[in-house]
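Q: Here's a chain of 280 amino acids. Please give me its 3D structure as C-alpha cells.
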Amino acid sequence: MRFLDLKSHHLHYRIDGGADAAGKPWLVLCNSLGTDLRMWDAQVPALSRQYRVLRYDRRGHGLSSAPPPPYALSDLGHDVIALLDALEIERAHFCGLSIGGLTGQWLGIHAGQRLDKLVVCATAAKIGTPESWFTRIAGVRENGLAGLTGATAERWFTPEFSAAEPGIARKILDTFAATDVGGYIGCCAALAGADLRQEIARIANPVLAVSGKDDPVCLPSDLESIAAHVQRGHHVSLPGRHIVNVESALAFNAELKGFLDGNPAPCNSTAFRSATARPA
C-alpha cells in the first residue's frame, strides 16, 4: 500500500499500468462522497493499458486518514496537487465523480496548467444547498451513516441494476456505511460551501461532462450546464443513476477512452449514449 504523508493527514493511493509505464500519460481518478478508490475497479483494466492510472482515497475516506472537519473544496483540490507534486507528475488527465467532479472543476479553475483533459461525472458546479448539507451533517452526527444506506442505494443505482448486480451494489454501499464519520462530515461541509457557477467559464481544458440519465442527485441538465459554460465542453448522458461509471461501465469506459484518446469534441455539444453503444 502507498501513502502520502501530509501535515494534517495521509492519503492512500494506488497506481495501475506501471509495468510498461514509459511514455504513458497519467490519469487521476477521484471518488465520490462515501466511496473509496475501489469505485473505479470497472475502469482500471480498460484504462491501465494506455495510461498510468492514479487512484486515491479522498481525505476521510477509505484508507486515508481524516483531519478534523470541516473541509473546504480548496483543501480537496490541494490534496490532488500534493499528490501530483510528490509523484513528480507535471500534468495529468483528471476524472472525478460527484464531489470528485467538483474537485476537478476547482482544479480546472485554479490549476488548469496541471491538467490535460478533464472529465466530470454526475456532478454540478453547485450540488445541493448549504441548508441541505448542514441538515445531513446534523443527522450523521446523531445517527451515523448506516441509517442512510437505503436512501443512498436508491439515489446511486436503479432498481434494475441493484437486482442484476447485487454484489457490486452491496460492496459499494458497505463502503459508504463504513466511511469515517468525521471525514464524511468534513466533505459535506466542503459541498455546502462550494459554488463554482461563476468561475467555470475560466476552465480552458477540454471537458467531458458525463451524466446519469436517471440521476436524482445531479441531473443531466447540471452536466449540460457545465459543458455549456466551460470553454471547450461536451456532454454525454448514459443510462443509470448517480454512480454512472459502475452502472454503465462499458459505455462509460468507451466514452472516457474516446475522449482522452481522440480530439476534443466540438464546443458546447451534447449527446445521449446507450449503455451498450460502444463496449470497451
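Q: Can you summarize the key feature?
A: The radius of gyration is 17 Å.
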